[in-house]
Amino acid sequence: MSLKTSQIIIISLAGMSTAIGVAWATIQSGSMEVSNPPLTESPVSDKKTISAVPTTSPESQKSEPLEPKKEAIESQKSEPQPATNSAVESSLIAGVSKPKVEPIVVTPPNSGCKISMAVVKDPNPPLNVRSHPGVTDSKIVGTLKNNTFVSVAQEQNGWLRITEPPGWIAKNRTESSCPNVRQQINFRPGGDEAIVKGRIIGGGSHSYIIRATNGQTMTVRNRKDVFPQILTPNGKLLAGDPYKYNPTEWTGKMPVTGNYTLQLDSNFRGFEYEFSVRVR
SS3 breakdown of the chain: % helix, strand, coil, rounded to 5? Predict the structure, then answer.
């Protein structure tokens, strides 16, 4: 069947319209493919998203608790320490920085003075009494037993001239002491105590001077048989009256500032003495 010219034109137009539609659809599908990424790229984006979410990996577990610990440490540092700790530390420091100072020991001199009495102490008794000071040119005029007290009239080149029996004896076979002693007591740096000990052979007086200020406390403790007299700077007896009693310890406050005297007196044979004195 033959087609008319008008029908041919309509069919041509319809074909062109169909071709144009197919072309347009093809262009649209291509643009859609470009705008939408392929499905193979989605795992990458998923990995990026998942990595921002906390996981159970060891690294994430270690990194997260650091912030609370740091805050706890900072809070501990900022909290004030108990006052008792500082008091204990200060007391310990005070104990270490201030060690106890040992008392100084004071003894009287035994030379450089005139001897008035001696006692015989011969390792090979009896002690010979000679006519002259020496061995070669002298005669033995008598002997003396140990612990015999003798009065000394003169000293010469290691020999003592005695009055009874008259003659000379070797000084190194006797014991003697300075009859009169006056000695100052000076504490060690930082100390406040002294131990005084000595011996008076025969008659004599040993005095020890110690300085104290008004209001200070003096303590004297006796370690032998004789307690010293304690005299104020003006000579007034403060303690230790030998005619009343012989105390073992005395403590009192100093009435004035000055030099106080601790005095021991012997009238005949003498004695050993030892006492401690503290001023604080």
Answer: 30, 35, 35
Q: What DSSP letter does each residue of 176-206 carry, written as one string? A: E--SEEEEE--PPTT--EEEEEEEEESSEEE
Residue 4 per-residue DSSP state: P
The answer to whether residues 174 and 155 touch, using CB atoms and an 8 Å cutoff, is: no
What confidence tens digit (pLDDT) does each residue in 191-227 have? 999 999 999 999 999 999 999 999 999 999 999 999 9
pLDDT digits (tens, 9 = 90+) for 75-127: 454 455 544 445 545 555 555 567 889 999 999 998 889 999 999 999 999 99
CATH number for the domain running over 104-109+179-279 = 2.60.120.380
Point out which residues pair with 276 in neighbouring strands: 195, 221
CB atoms under 10 Å from CB of 201, counted, come to 23
Pick the CATH number of 117-176 from 2.60.120.620, 1.20.140.10, 3.30.70.580, 2.30.30.40: 2.30.30.40
Neighbours of 276 (CB within 10 A): 17
Letter for the amino acid at 134?
G
